[in-house]
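Hey, can you fold this one?
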Amino acid sequence: MAYRIVVELRARRDAESTYDHIAKDSPSAAADWYEGLLGCLESLGDMPERCPIVPEDDIVRMGLRHFVYGNYRILFTIAKQTQTVHVVHVRHAAQRSIDPERGASEPS
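Sure. Predicted structure:
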């Protein structure tokens, strides 16, 4: 079963910010990181439920899951009825957890 991938605005901004940060030191490393990210996002189209629900979901209760890519967490939800994966954040693993006051779609 193939799912459609929708990268929400916040996740796009997260990825762009990360790319820019990496590119300051190494444009080629940034390009490699971004290509790898795209591959991870594409892989979510097949069996996204293989990825675990995140601990923060106890608070935000969105069915929030994550896929770990290097030092980054790709946070997403699955809309089974429309067979769509909604990517809501791309966060460095060292960032603090999602702020329960703001939910998963707001920056922390």
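The helical segments are 9-25, 27-43, 57-60. Let me know if you want another pass with a different chain boundary.
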